[in-house]
């Protein structure tokens, strides 16, 4: 927990003893825990990095935290309430979270303009009849203005980009558009799952700066408890060292190292963490 202006800020999201076990289909092999008894918390306005090689359990852990997978053991709490299937907390968490995936071209419909794709989450809310959500998240502006606003926030020119199609964009531009689509619903929690691994190194720097700017704006809110939090999934400590507040290192479903980013970077205790540092690309 942290304090701001003398006030205590409680975690917005907590996982206790989270466990998820898989059995390889048709292999006859023993069941294996992809996530094995992990405790984790996320503060308002905080960026938590979950680091590990492929198969370490980082994506499974993130899906458990956002209620997209049911744990075989342990529990998730959102804003102090248990996230159970169909519960008010589960519905609130689904409404208040947004995802940015690894490959932007796989997540943007090639038939739609970028303006249409970015607007889709708000249009979907209107179709569901979520009038309160539509009004609250529109903030009194019309849809085109809101789309232009979030495109500008991710350093894209709305006049040019709104009418473009995914095939007209570079990888970096497409990923920024995907980030804009996630931001348009003003999420409380943003999950970025390997957001830079599918684009070239020069574009990664731009995406990193975009994410840094988003988190800086969130941390500058007068009411920190309402700031957006971010979970970033990566195998590369170089990607997260300039954006994350805290890092959790996973190996085979277990946490082997956790703490403030600077402490982990300057004094890694585990040889595995030192290997990740040596392989950092940014």
Summarize the structure in words:
Helix content is 38%, strand content 24%. The chain has 282 residues and is α/β, with parallel strands linked by helices. It has a six-stranded mixed sheet, with helices on both faces. It has a four-stranded antiparallel sheet with strand order 4-3-6-7. β6 and β7 form a beta hairpin. α4 crosses α6. The longest helix is centred in the last third of the chain and has 19 residues. About 4% of the residues have low confidence.
Number of helices: 12
* Overall mean pLDDT: 87
Percentage of β-strand residues: 15-25%
CA radius of gyration? 19 Å
Q: Based on Cα principal axes, name the global outline.
A: globular
List the secondary-structure elements in sequence, H or E.
EEEEEHEEHEHHHHHHEHEHEEHH
| Strand order of the biggest β-sheet | 8-9-10-5-11-12
Describe this structure in a few short sentences.
By secondary structure, the chain is of the alpha/beta class. The chain contains 12 helices and 12 strands.
Provide the descriptors you would attach to this structure in a database record.
282 residues, alpha/beta, 24% strand
SSE arrangement:
Blueprint: E1 2-4, E2 7-9, E3 13-22, E4 32-42, E5 47-51, H1 58-65, E6 73-78, E7 81-82, H2 88-96, E8 97-100, H3 104-107, H4 114-127, H5 131-138, H6 143-153, H7 158-161, H8 171-183, E9 189-193, H9 201-219, E10 229-234, H10 237-240, E11 246-251, E12 254-260, H11 261-266, H12 271-278
Parallel strand pairs: 5-10, 5-11, 8-9, 9-10
Antiparallel strand pairs: 1-2, 3-4, 3-6, 6-7, 11-12
């Amino acid at each position: 927990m942290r304090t701001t202006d003398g006030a205590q800020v409680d975690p917005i999201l907590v996982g206790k003893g989270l466990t998820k076990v898989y059995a390889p289909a048709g292999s006859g092999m023993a069941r294996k825990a992809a996530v094995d008894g992990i405790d984790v918390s996320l503060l308002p306005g905080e960026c938590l990095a979950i680091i590990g090689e492929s198969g370490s359990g980082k994506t499974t852990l993130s899906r458990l935290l956002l209620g997209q997978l049911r744990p075989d053991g342990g529990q998730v709490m959102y804003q102090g309430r248990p996230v159970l299937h169909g519960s008010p907390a589960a519905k609130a968490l689904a409404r208040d979270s947004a995802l940015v995936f690894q490959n932007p071209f796989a997540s943007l419909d090639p038939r739609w303009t970028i303006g249409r794709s970015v607007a889709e989450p708000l249009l979907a809310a209107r179709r569901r009849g979520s009038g309160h959500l539509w009004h609250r998240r529109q903030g009194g502006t019309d849809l085109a203005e809101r789309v232009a606003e979030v495109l500008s926030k991710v350093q894209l020119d709305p006049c040019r980009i709104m009418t473009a199609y995914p095939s007209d964009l570079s990888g970096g531009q497409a990923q920024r558009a995907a980030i804009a689509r996630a931001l348009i619903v003003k999420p409380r929690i943003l999950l970025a799952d390997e957001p830079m691994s599918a684009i070239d190194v020069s574009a990664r720097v731009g995406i990193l700066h975009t994410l840094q700017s988003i988190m800086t704006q969130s941390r500058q809110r007068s009411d920190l408890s309402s700031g957006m939090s971010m979970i970033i999934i990566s195998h590369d400590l170089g990607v997260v060292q300039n954006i994350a507040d805290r890092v959790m290192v996973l190996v085979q479903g277990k946490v082997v190292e956790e703490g403030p980013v600077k402490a982990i970077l300057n004094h890694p205790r585990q040889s595995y963490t030192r290997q990740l540092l040596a392989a950092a690309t940014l």
